[in-house]
Design brief:
alpha/beta
């Protein structure tokens, strides 16, 4: 079926908390309904790293507590309205402000929680998430206790996740670990309500997970046997991509790689639990760097660049076939951008998984460019650009004359590149098209979300004017005209 949606991460919702939260989701849901959209696409909802990237989390399962709805804490009796109001002072994106104030509010809520009986569903939540929750909570508590990342913890037994040390610190840090359990309970309780609201409005949630996890994560700490590590717990090889025209040194991501043989022996248990977890969070799941299932780039640990890595054979179709069969209600989408060998395309098509098309990539080369809208297959998700691209206004402003000439010749661009390219995208054969909120609001390049390979970013926040009735009406008209309602 022909559908469309909008990409806007939760941190980018208009907010006075420093980042967007679930508290502000209602207005955007109403905007989606008014614009006749079927999907809300977001970025990973796991905690972010020191650079605020949602693609380098300390857990593949935990939720980002910055998203927690402060007003809901007030309704639950954990904090006062005055305490909530005191957290609403930021103008635009300010992660430091958000972390500082949300931490203060959650600590206040936790003090009240400890003095009362837990909510009726609290123990059920702990049991349902026992596979990852205790390890994550202790990992966070130990990081706080030692004031250092895992590789600098002074207790070697705990650092290496030895049973005796884990038991010792589970007792020593019990209350602090419980705080992190409490925060996750709040996040997932609110998320359940959020999903229910979306479902009632007929809007599907389009989620996202990275291929890899951070070395400094509860997953690598608690399950070292699943990763390509040496006897000291250090990675043998790390993830990245090789040099290309845009990056002469390649990109050195630094994530530990999987030990696929060990994972296979366990029936891919960790991955299956991860996908099951995602099936409770999302209706559609985009897997970032999908090509690593086919082949992945391994850089020896300790290298300063990605120049000296080599490609290795991935796990292939077996894991994904099992996931698709086990969780048929979850639609999987492959992020298959960049240099993609034919074997990756064959794997994706074998599994029936849609890939991605980016219209901004369409105008160099000839009319056989696969990113041109007239060349799209139905089973794909098409974008003008994603969170990694410039806004279409910014892209057009910096495009050379040959790119502009081809866009005019092949997609009928004349007066308003954003609106005319949105129309070309919506008229394509792609079953699903997704517009960034920046393009819907016709924002300039200063509002782009991310610049790949550069630290920082993730700093776009929409404003209330972006969610105007006029923008919704214009998008609704395009959606109806192109039969995507």
């Amino acid at each position: 079926m022909r559908k469309s949606g909008i990409l806007l991460h939760i941190t980018s919702l208009p907010s006075r908390y420093g980042v967007g939260t679930l508290e502000e989701s209602g207005k955007f849901i109403r905007f989606l309904k008014s614009a006749k959209q079927s999907y809300w696409q977001i970025l990973p909802v796991t905690p972010t790293d020191a650079h605020n990237s949602p693609y380098a989390a300390p857990s593949a399962f935990a939720g980002n507590v910055l998203f927690i709805d402060a007003s809901d804490l007030c309704k639950r009796g954990y904090v006062s309205f005055e305490q909530v109001k005191a957290c609403r002072g930021a103008r635009g994106i300010d992660y430091d402000y958000a972390r500082r104030n949300k931490e203060k509010l959650l600590r206040q809520a936790f003090c009240v929680f400890l003095k009362n009986e837990p909510p009726a569903d609290y123990r059920d939540f702990c049991e349902q998430n026992s596979y990852w929750l205790k390890d994550y909570a202790l990992f966070c508590a130990a990081t706080e206790h030692f004031g250092a990342s895992r590789s600098d913890w002074p207790d070697e037994g705990l650092r290496m996740h030895k049973a005796e040390s884990v038991a010792k610190y589970s007792e020593l840090l019990a209350e602090e670990a419980e705080y992190y359990v409490f925060c996750q309970y709040l996040f997932f309780s609110q998320w359940k309500h959020f999903r229910h609201t979306l479902s009632e409005e007929g809007i599907k949630l389009f989620g996202d997970i990275p291929m890899y996890v951070s070395y400094d994560s509860a997953d690598v700490w608690a399950h070292p046997e699943l990763f390509d590590l040496d006897e000291k717990g250090n990675p043998k090889n790390v993830a990245g991509v090789p040099p290309d025209y845009f990056s002469p040194d390649g990109q050195l991501w630094g994530n530990p790689l999987y030990d696929w043989e060990r994972m296979k022996k366990s029936g891919y248990d960790w991955w299956m639990r991860r996908i099951e977890h995602c099936s409770r969070l999302f209706d559609v799941l985009r897997i970032d760097h999908f090509r690593a299932f086919d082949s992945y780039y391994a850089v020896p640990f300790g290298q300063k660049t990605a120049k000296f890595g080599r490609w290795k054979k991935g796990v292939g179709a077996e894991l994904l076939e099992k996931a698709i069969k086990t969780f048929p209600e979850l639609t999987i989408v492959a992020e298959d951008l960049g240099y993609i060998p034919q074997s990756v395309t064959e794997l994706r098509k074998k599994l029936g998984i849609p890939g991605m098309k980016i219209l901004q990539f369409a105008f160099d080369g000839g009319t056989d460019n696969p990113f041109l809208p007239q060349n799209y297959e139905k089973n794909c998700v098409a974008y003008l650009g994603t969170h990694d691209n410039d806004t279409t206004v910014g892209w057009w402003d910096s495009a050379d004359e040959s790119i502009r000439a081809n866009a005019q010749k092949w997609c009928g661009v004349k007066d308003n590149p954003v609106r005319e390219l949105m129309t070309a995208l919506a008229e394509s054969d792609a079953d699903t098209v997704v517009f960034t909120m920046q393009d819907v609001a016709e924002k300039g390049g200063e509002y782009r979300m991310n610049r790949p390979g550069q630290a920082g970013g993730w700093s776009y926040m929409a404003d209330s004017a972006d969610l105007s009735a006029g923008n919704a009406k214009r998008l609704a008209a395009l959606t109806e005209k192109t039969n995507r309602t």
